[in-house]
Amino acid sequence: MKMDKLKSCLKETLLTKEDIDKITSELAEKLNEEYQDKKEPIVVVGLLKGAIMFTCDLYRKLNFPSTLDFFWATSYVGSASTHKLDIRKDIDEDVEGKHVILLDDSVNTATSLKVILEKLRPRNPLSIKIVTLLDKPSARKYDLKPDLVGKVVDDKFLVGYGMDYNDLYRNLPYVAVLDESIYK
Prior knowledge:
There is one protein chain. 26% of the residues lie in helices and 34% in strands. By secondary structure, the chain is α/β, with parallel strands linked by helices. The chain has a single domain, classed as Rossmann fold (3-Layer(aba) Sandwich), CATH 3.40.50.2020. The longest helix has 19 residues, at 17-35.
């Protein structure tokens, strides 16, 4: 798909590259302040595929020792959540006795977080902190709230910066609202 055709599918830009950089810097500053003096190991866990860009950008701004791992999970088919999580890859890291920082691109229904937390908690981490670039509280199906939020947004279908519609649009360097005519 050519870039002009790709852009014609977008309704509006929600976050520019500069907005994203500012948000990731602010989140990293808060995490650096909280974790810089921790004696116990820290594991940063990104949720694939959507949070890949966010995870990489934020991880580069952290100034404390940590390891990096990924869950690959999905609960979406097209534009709708199935409310069932398909975990395609579990983390490899043993998190017992470690602090876990869980990175998500966008917390919508919280289906993914609910299941992932149910998998992580029995592994006895010292703590789990949920950090998200975007939060859509109006879309929530489960009573889960991220600990750190980059920006609260309306419940619109977002693409770009790792977020997708049927695996497309992830490569956009910004976050945009997808035109409803594409997915309805």
